[in-house]
Design goal:
The protein has 3 helices and 7 strands, in the order ααββαβββββ. Strands 1, 2, 3, 4, 5, 6 and 7 form a 7-stranded mixed β-sheet that branches. The longest helix has 20 residues. The protein is globular and about 45 Å long.
Length: about 140
């Protein structure tokens, strides 16, 4: 990956993280391609299209507060106008009065350069566990 592409893709990953932390649907919208497809942790079917993906994220933003996320173990590559990345998110946040801590949420994304800007065209996240309540923080 060229240094320029590396910086722009890393910047887009940081912008995704920041939009999620801030619960900012408008900022997230700017990062998504019109034809984005997402597979979310706990979901059974893909969510297709920018509007539908934004609805899903907005529901998430409405439930969570005081969110903190750290991205780690990022691997990325590019070929022409396509980039792909995998990384882990560690984070915590609140749903109501209850705090949760999650480690190792797995992410893979595909990006496409459109008119000089990188946009997410595919997002996939999964958690390496099923017992949600075990992640409550006392």
């Amino acid at each position: 990956m060229t240094e320029l592409a590396t910086g722009k893709v890393q910047g887009l990953l940081d912008s995704l993280k920041n939009a999620v932390i801030e619960g900012d649907s408008r900022a997230l919208e700017q990062l998504l391609a019109e034809d984005v497809c997402a597979f979310f942790s706990g979901g059974d079917t893909p969510v297709r299209g920018r509007d539908a993906v934004l609805v899903t994220w907005t529901r998430h933003f409405g439930r969570w507060s005081d969110v903190r996320i750290d991205r780690r173990d990022t691997v990325a590559g590019t070929r022409g106008n396509v980039a792909w990345c995998q990384f882990l998110w560690d984070g915590e946040g609140r749903i109501g009065a209850q705090r949760y801590r999650l480690e190792g949420e797995r992410w893979t994304v595909v990006l496409r350069r459109e008119n000089g800007s990188w946009r997410f065209v595919q997002m996939h996240s999964s958690m390496p566990y099923r017992d949600w309540e075990s992640h409550r923080v006392a």
